[in-house]
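A common beginner's mistake is to predict each chain separately and then try to dock the pieces by hand. The better habit, illustrated here, is to supply every component at once so that their relative placement is modeled jointly.
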Amino acid sequence: EAGVVQSPRYKIIEKKQPVAFWCNPISGHNTLYWYLQNLGQGPELLIRYENEEAVDDSQLPKDRFSAERLKGVDSTLKIQPAELGDSAVYLCASSLGRTSGEADTQYFGPGTRLTVL
Amino acid sequence: AQKVTQAQTEISVVEKEDVTLDCVYETRDTTYYLFWYKQPPSGELVFLIRRNSFDEQNEISGRYSWNFQKSTSSFNFTITASQVVDSAVYFCALSEEEKLTFGTGTRLTIIP
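With all components supplied together, the output reads:
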């Protein structure tokens, strides 16, 4: 079974340029997450989708970040314009969707390493 | 607010030695879940284990074992007879009300 797919794996841009990351979750997974991972830190949640609906975007810097999951499958995370401090790894994860009151296990993709010059 | 502390930033051991990675958590909920993930140099976070707060039984999977103690709010991870392939960053995480909070990770280096 294919895991979470992300592209590109690496991206280098100049500050003030836009950038977009793409994620394809594991087939059948209804919940999709975008995380930000700074060097030497654990991942931090940016946004969580349940199907097409963004149910938790409280940590997403909405002035420059946006995300969409139009058909409840693939998702795109965009930054416009990028700043130097946005250099980090952007991870996508997916899970089946909460059942029986149990916490989901999240499965992660390889991430996109963004460098802003 | 929930919090996960991994006090060991880096650990190095010689191959075949046993090593324990510590994880201490804080939560006000009585129902929660704990996780361990491995992040090799390739960058992908690999799921290792999930444990709910009502199950304090220790778990063993091959060379890996986990010790969950609610009394000390700890969920420690032991690798027995370590191998070079175990070299990675290991993250402990706490799930509460559908939010996953990670620790800062422990970088484990196995020296051949």
